C-alpha cells in the first residue's frame, strides 16, 4: 500500500454504455447522499414553513395573544414566550422570511458575481484590477461589522430591504470565484477558437464561458445564501434586524434578552437554534456536493 | 552474455491487477524477465501496455485499487515482493532508485535541492556531520555536471534539464544496484535530451549499476540500451538484444513497430498499426495481439502463447514459432522455412 | 522580498482602512436630516433623558463641522482618524471613544489571537491527518465529526455551551471575565490570571470548536491534491520515513494556500467572536459594541468598528509579509 498515487492509475478508460451525459449526471446526483440529505433539509424546511403559514393563524405570533411563558402543550406545541407569542406559530411564520432574505441576497450576489467575475476575468487589464481589488476589499472587511453600523442608522424594517442591505457584501465571494474560473478558462484552447470563428465577446461569454462556470455558479449561489443568512441572523441577534416580520434571528434575540436559557425555557431557544443548524448544515452539504461536481477528484472513488 | 553471477533483477510471473467495481483490470499479466549486472534494459510499448505499472511494482509503489497479485521480484536473489513494508522502505533508494518521468513536478517545491538530496542520505545512512553531507552533495552535483551553488536553490529556479540532472544525482546518492529511469528525457527539448542521456549513462556505468529505461523515443533508446523487452497489453511479447530486435524482430507486433519507424535512408509509408490495444478489463482470449495481427490463425485466438526462446538469446511469445504453428505456417505456404516473412500473411 | 511587494501590500492595507472609514463617514449621513438631531431624537423616542445635551450638541457640531461643505468635513474626519481621535461617547460622555476601546481591546485581542492561532494550527493538522492513510480510524472519525461542525456559526455553538456547560452543568462560568467583585487592584497575581482564563474558556471553546471545521475542510481538499503530485510519489520511492513525508513533503505544501484563507477568514472570525462575547458578557469590544447599539452611542459604534477593521488589516498585512518566507515560489511581480 502506498501513499502516493501512480501516475495514470487506470491504464485505460473503462467503456461506458452509450448513455446520454445528462442522465448519467442526474443518476450520480441522486446517489450522492450529501446532496440528497441537504436538499431534503432545505426543501423540507421551506415547504414546512410555507405550507404551515397558510394553516397556522398569523395572529398567534402577535404579542399577548396567549398567556406568558407557557410550557409546551397540545394547544401550544412549543409553548409561548415572555410576551405571550405562540412559539410554534413564530417558528412557522419565521422560517421562510429568513430563507427569503437568503434567497434574495444570494440571487443578487451571484448575479453580480457572475457578471463582474466574467468581465474582470475575461478582459483583464485595469478593469480586472479594479473589480478584483474591490472584491477583495469587500471580502476582507468584516461585513457583519459594517452591516451593524449600517443597520444602526438605518433601522431596517422590511425583509426585502434587509436583503438588499446584505447583498451589498454578498457579491464579493461569487465575483472572486467566477473571476478565477474565467481566468483559467480563458487560457484554454476553445476560447481563441471561438474568437476566430467570429463570435463576439458577448456570445463567447454566454455560450462558451458560462456553461463551464455553471457548477461554480451553483456552488457560489449556495455559499452566498448561506453567508446572507449568517449575516442576517447576526444582525438580528444584536437587535438590528427587521422587527415586524417574525424571523428566526429575532426569535433568538428575544430569547436571549428574555434570559430564556437561565429561566430554563428550553422550548424558546432550542427550536430556533436547532432550525438554524439544520439550515446551515443543509446548505453546507449541498455546497460540498456541488464542490464535488466542480472538482471530480473529490468524488468518492469506486471501491 | 556470460552469467557468472546472480542476475541483478529477476522478475517471475508478475501480475498486477487493478480492482474496479467491474472486475480486475489486468495491467500486468504474468510477465517474467531477467536483468544482468551492469546491463541497460529497456521496455518498449504503447501507452497503457504496462511499462510504468511494472516499474512501480518493482518499487512496490502500486496504490489501491491496484495490487500485486502474484509473482516474485528477486533483487540479487532476494524476493522483495515478499518482504514487509519497513524492509521495503529501507530497500528503496538504497538498492533501487528511480528517476521519474516529469522532473518538473517531482521535486518538492518548498525544499532546497540540498535538502531533498540530503533527505535520502540522512534517512538511509543515519546522521552525518553537516560538512561531510555538504561535501557529498556537492560531489553528486559535480558528477552530473551541475555547479555546487545549485544545492542552495529551489526547484523553480532551475531549468528543465537542470532539474532532471538533479534527479539523476539524487538517484545515485546511495549507489544503488538498480536504477529505474522512467522516460527521463521525454519532457526535455532535443538538444538537452542527448546531453542528459549521456550524463545518465555515464553515471550508471561508473556505479556499475543495472538500469531499466522506459522510453518512447525508439531512436534515442536504441543508442543506449543493451537489451529490450517489448510489452503489449500487459504482456511481454518479445525480449532480445537491441541489435537483434531491430534487425530481426520475431513477434509481429515488434515487426510492425520497427516497420513503422521513420527512416532517413529509405522512403516508406508511415507506420501505424491498425486497430487499438484491447481493454484490459476483458482482454481477448488467447494471444492479446491476435485481433490486429496480420498473421493470426486459429490457435492464436484461444491459446495464450508463452514467452520462449525462438533464437539464440531471443525470446518471443508467438504461436508462429510453435511446432504446431510452424507446421501450420509451412503447410500453408508449402515451404519448410523457419523464417517468417513480415509481408506475407498466412 | 522586493520593495514592490511590500509597497503593494501596504497599499492594500491603507486602501482597506480608507474604504472602511469612508463607509463609516457616509453611513451616518445617509440618515435623513441632521445626524446629531437624529441621534438625540432617537434617544428621546426611546425614553432616554439626555443630560448635558447642550454640551454634546456643541461638541459634535464643532467636530462634525456641519456648516462646512462636505469635502471639508470629510477631510477633517480623515485627519482626526489619522490621529486616532475617534470622538466622544454619547452614553458615557465625556469618556473618549478611544478610552472605551482601549479598555476592551486587550480582552478581545487576547481572545482572538489565541483562539485563531489554536484553531488554525489544529485545523490544518487535523485536516492533513484526515487524508493521511496511516491515521487511526478512530481519529479520522473524530476529526470528521468536527469537520461537520464547520457550517455552524460561532454564536449558535456559544448558546449551546452557555446552556449546557455553564448553566445546567455549572462547569464553567457563563458571564464576565472574573468572578463578581474581583478586581485587578486586589492583586494581579496568579489567581487573577487563572480566573481570567477560567472565564475565557467557554468563549474560546465556542470559537475554536466552531472554527476548526472550516480549516479541516480546506486542508483536506488541498491534501488530496498534494498527495496526487509527483513529488509525493518520488518521496515515497526515496524510501523516506512516513513522518518525514507527511510533514516535510505533504503538509508543508498543502498548508500554503490555507494562509491566504486565514487572511480572508479574519473578518468572519471577528464578526462571529463579537456575538460570542455578547453571549458570554465577555468585556471585549464585541460586548461594548452591543452596549453601544442599545444605547445608540454612534461614535462608539463607529469607533469600535473602525478599530476592528484596522486590526484585521494589520493582521492581513503581517500574514502577507510572512507568506513569501514560507513559499519560495512567490514571485513578487504581478503579470
- The helix/strand order of chain C is HHHHHHHHHHHHH
CATH domain topology of the largest domain in chain B: Rossmann fold
Question: How many β-strand stretches of chain C?
Answer: 0
* CATH H-level superfamily title of the domain at 101-312 in chain C: MetI-like
Average pLDDT reading of chain C: 79
Order of helices and strands of chain B: EEEHEEHEHHHHEHEHEEHHHEEH
What is the chains' assembly state?
Answer: heterotrimer
Number of strands of chain B: 12
Extract low-pLDDT stretches of chain C.
Answer: none
First-last Cα distance of chain C: 17 Å
What percentage of the residues of chain B does DSSP assign to strands (E)? 15-25%
Q: Show the largest interface.
A: A-C, 49 and 65 residues
The tally of structural domains of chain B comes to 2
The outline of chain C comes out as flat
Rg for CA atoms of chain C: 24 Å
Helix content of chain C: over 70%
Question: Quick check: average pLDDT of chain B?
Answer: 84
Q: Give a short account of the largest sheet of chain B.
A: 8 strands, mixed
Radius of gyration of chain B: 22 Å
What does this molecule look like?
The complex is a heterotrimer of chains A (303), B (346) and C (335). Chain A has 303 residues and is mostly helical. Chain A has one domain (29-302): Orthogonal Bundle (MetI-like fold), CATH 1.10.3720. Helix content of chain A is 69%, strand content 0%. Chain A contains eleven helices and no strands. Chain A has helices at residues 21-31, 33-55, 87-123, 125-140, 143-153, 159-170, 172-186, 190-196, 201-237, 248-257, 266-294. Chain A is elongated and about 75 Å long. Chain A starts with 20 loop residues before the first helix and ends in a 9-residue tail after the last helix. Chain B is α/β, with parallel strands linked by helices and 346 residues long. In chain B, 33% of the residues lie in helices and 22% in strands. Chain B has helices at residues 51-58, 85-91, 103-106, 113-125, 130-143, 160-171, 190-207, 218-224, 242-247, 252-259, 298-302, 323-333, and strands spanning 9-20, 23-35, 40-44, 66-75, 78-79, 96-99, 178-182, 210-214, 227-232, 235-241, 308-311, 314-316. In chain B, β11 (308-311) and β12 form a beta hairpin. In chain B, α6 packs parallel to α7 (190-207). Residues 331-346 of chain B have low confidence and may be disordered. With 335 residues, chain C is an all-alpha fold. Chain C has a domain at 101-312: MetI-like fold. Chain C has 13 helices and no strands. Chain C has helices spanning 3-30, 35-45, 53-64, 70-82, 97-131, 137-148, 154-168, 190-227, 230-237, 242-254, 256-279, 285-294, 298-326. In chain C, α1 (3-30) runs antiparallel to α13 (298-326), α5 runs parallel beside α13 (298-326) and α7 (154-168) crosses α11. Chain C is flat. The model of chain C has no long low-confidence stretch (mean pLDDT 79). Chains in contact: A-B, A-C, B-C. At the A-B interface, loops of A face α1 of B.
Amino acid at each position: 500500500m502506498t501513499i502516493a498515487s501512480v501516475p495514470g492509475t487506470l491504464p485505460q478508460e473503462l467503456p461506458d454504455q452509450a448513455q446520454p451525459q445528462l442522465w448519467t449526471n442526474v443518476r450520480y446526483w441522486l446517489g450522492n447522499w450529501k446532496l440528497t440529505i441537504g436538499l431534503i433539509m432545505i426543501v423540507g424546511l421551506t415547504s414546512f414553513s410555507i405550507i404551515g403559514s397558510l394553516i397556522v393563524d398569523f395572529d398567534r405570533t402577535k404579542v399577548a395573544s396567549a398567556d406568558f411563558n407557557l410550557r409546551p402543550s397540545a394547544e401550544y406545541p412549543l409553548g409561548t414566550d415572555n410576551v405571550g407569542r405562540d412559539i410554534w406559530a413564530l417558528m412557522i411564520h419565521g422560517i421562510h422570511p429568513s430563507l427569503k432574505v437568503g434567497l434574495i441576497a444570494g440571487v443578487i450576489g451571484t448575479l453580480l458575481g457572475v457578471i463582474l467575475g466574467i468581465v474582470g476575468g475575461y478582459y483583464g487589464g485595469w478593469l480586472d484590477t479594479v473589480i478584483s481589488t474591490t472584491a477583495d476589499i469587500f471580502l476582507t472587511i468584516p461585513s457583519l461589522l459594517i452591516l451593524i453600523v449600517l443597520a444602526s442608522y438605518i433601522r431596517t424594517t422590511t425583509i426585502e430591504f434587509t436583503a438588499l442591505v446584505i447583498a451589498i457584501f454578498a457579491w464579493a465571494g461569487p465575483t472572486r470565484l467566477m473571476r478565477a474560473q474565467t481566468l483559467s478558462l480563458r487560457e484554454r484552447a476553445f476560447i481563441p477558437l471561438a474568437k476566430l470563428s467570429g463570435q463576439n465577446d458577448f456570445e463567447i461569454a454566454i455560450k462558451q464561458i458560462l456553461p463551464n462556470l455553471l457548477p461554480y455558479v451553483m456552488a457560489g449561489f449556495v455559499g452566498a445564501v448561506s453567508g446572507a443568512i449568517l449575516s442576517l441572523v447576526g444582525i438580528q441577534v444584536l437587535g438590528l434586524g427587521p422587527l415586524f416580520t417574525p424571523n428566526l434571528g429575532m426569535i433568538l434575540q428575544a430569547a436571549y434578552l428574555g434570559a430564556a436559557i437561565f429561566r430554563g425555557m428550553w422550548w424558546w431557544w432550542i427550536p430556533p437554534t436547532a432550525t438554524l443548524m439544520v439550515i446551515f448544515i443543509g446548505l453546507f452539504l449541498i455546497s460540498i456536493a456541488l464542490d464535488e461536481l466542480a472538482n471530480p477528484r473529490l468524488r468518492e472513488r469506486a471501491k | 552474455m556470460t552469467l557468472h553471477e546472480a542476475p541483478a533483477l529477476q522478475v517471475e510471473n508478475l501480475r498486477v491487477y487493478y480492482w474496479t467495481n467491474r472486475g480486475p483490470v489486468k495491467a500486468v499479466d504474468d510477465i517474467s524477465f531477467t536483468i544482468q549486472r551492469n546491463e541497460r534494459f529497456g521496455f518498449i510499448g504503447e501507452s497503457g501496455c504496462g511499462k510504468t505499472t511494472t516499474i512501480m511494482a518493482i518499487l512496490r509503489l502500486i496504490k489501491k485499487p491496484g495490487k500485486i497479485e502474484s509473482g516474485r521480484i528477486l533483487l540479487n536473489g532476494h524476493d522483495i515482493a515478499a518482504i514487509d513494508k519497513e524492509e521495503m522502505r529501507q530497500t528503496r533508494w538504497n538498492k533501487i532508485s528511480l528517476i521519474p518521468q516529469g522532473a518538473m513536478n517531482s521535486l518538492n517545491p518548498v525544499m532546497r535541492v540540498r535538502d531533498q538530496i540530503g533527505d535520502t542520505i540522512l534517512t538511509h545512512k543515519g546522521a552525518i556531520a553537516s560538512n561531510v553531507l555538504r561535501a557529498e552533495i556537492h560531489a553528486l552535483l559535480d558528477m552530473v555536471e551541475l555547479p555546487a551553488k545549485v544545492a542552495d536553490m529551489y526547484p523553480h529556479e532551475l531549468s528543465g534539464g537542470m532539474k532532471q540532472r538533479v534527479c539523476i544525482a539524487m538517484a545515485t546518492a546511495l549507489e544503488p544496484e538498480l536504477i529505474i529511469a522512467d522516460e527521463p528525457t521525454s519532457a526535455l527539448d532535443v538538444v538537452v535530451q542527448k546531453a542528459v542521456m549521456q550524463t545518465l549513462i555515464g553515471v550508471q556505468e561508473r556505479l556499475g549499476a543495472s538500469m531499466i529505461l522506459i522510453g518512447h523515443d525508439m531512436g534515442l533508446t536504441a543508442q543506449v540500451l543493451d537489451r529490450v523487452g517489448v510489452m503489449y497489453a500487459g504482456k511481454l511479447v518479445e525480449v532480445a538484444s537491441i541489435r537483434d530486435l531491430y534487425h530481426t524482430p520475431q513477434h509481429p507486433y515488434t515487426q510492425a513497430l520497427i516497420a513503422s519507424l521513420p527512416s532517413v535512408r529509405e522512403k516508406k509509408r508511415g507506420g501505424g498499426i491498425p486497430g487499438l490495444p484491447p481493454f484490459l478489463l476483458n482482454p481477448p482470449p488467447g494471444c492479446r495481439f491476435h485481433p490486429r495481427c496480420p498473421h493470426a490463425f486459429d490457435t492464436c485466438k484461444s491459446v495464450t502463447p508463452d514467452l520462449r526462446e525462438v533464437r539464440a538469446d531471443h525470446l518471443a511469445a508467438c504461436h508462429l514459432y510453435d511446432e504446431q504453428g510452424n507446421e501450420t505456417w509451412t503447410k500453408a505456404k508449402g515451404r519448410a522455412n523457419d523464417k517468417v516473412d513480415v509481408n506475407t500473411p498466412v | 522580498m522586493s520593495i514592490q511587494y511590500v509597497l503593494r501590500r501596504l497599499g492594500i492595507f491603507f486602501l482597506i482602512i480608507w474604504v472602511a472609514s469612508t463607509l463609516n463617514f457616509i453611513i451616518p449621513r445617509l440618515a435623513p436630516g441632521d445626524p446629531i438631531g437624529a441621534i438625540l431624537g432617537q434617544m428621546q423616542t426611546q425614553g432616554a433623558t439626555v443630560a448635558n445635551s447642550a454640551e454634546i450638541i456643541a461638541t459634535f457640531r464643532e467636530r462634525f463641522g456641519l456648516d462646512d461643505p462636505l469635502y471639508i468635513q470629510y477631510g477633517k474626519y480623515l485627519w482626526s482618524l489619522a490621529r486616532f481621535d475617534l470622538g466622544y461617547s454619547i452614553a458615557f460622555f465625556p469618556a473618549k471613544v478611544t478610552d472605551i476601546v482601549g479598555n476592551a481591546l486587550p480582552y478581545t485581542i487576547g481572545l482572538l489571537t489565541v483562539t485563531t492561532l489554536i484553531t488554525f494550527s489544529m485545523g490544518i493538522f487535523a485536516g492533513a491527518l484526515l487524508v493521511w492513510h496511516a491515521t487511526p480510524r478512530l481519529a479520522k472519525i473524530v476529526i470528521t465529526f468536527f469537520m461537520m461542525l464547520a457550517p455552524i456559526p460561532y454564536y449558535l455553538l456559544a448558546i449551546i455551551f452557555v446552556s449546557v456547560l455553564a448553566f445546567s452543568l455549572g462547569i464553567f462560568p457563563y458571564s464576565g471575565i472574573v468572578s463578581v467583585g474581583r478586581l485587578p487592584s486586589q492583586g494581579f497575581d496568579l489567581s487573577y490570571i487563572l480566573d481570567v482564563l477560567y472565564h475565557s474558556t467557554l468563549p474560546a471553546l465556542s470559537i475554536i470548536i466552531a472554527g476548526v471545521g472550516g480549516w479541516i475542510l480546506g486542508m483536506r481538499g488541498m491534501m488530496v491534491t498534494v498527495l496526487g503530485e509527483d513529488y509525493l510519489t518520488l518521496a515515497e520511492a526515496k524510501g523516506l520515513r512516513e513522518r518525514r513525508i507527511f510533514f516535510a513533503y505533504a503538509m508543508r505544501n498543502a498548508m500554503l494556500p490555507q494562509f491566504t484563507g486565514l487572511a480572508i477568514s479574519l473578518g468572519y472570525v471577528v464578526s462571529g467572536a463579537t456575538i460570542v462575547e455578547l453571549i458570554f458578557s465577555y468585556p471585549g469590544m464585541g460586548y461594548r459594541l452591543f452596549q453601544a447599539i442599545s444605547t445608540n452611542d454612534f461614535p462608539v459604534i463607529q469607533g469600535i468598528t473602525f478599530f476592528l477593521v484596522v486590526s484585521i488589516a494589520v493582521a492581513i498585512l503581517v500574514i502577507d509579509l510572512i507568506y513569501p518566507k514560507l513559499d519560495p515560489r512567490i514571485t513578487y511581480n504581478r503579470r
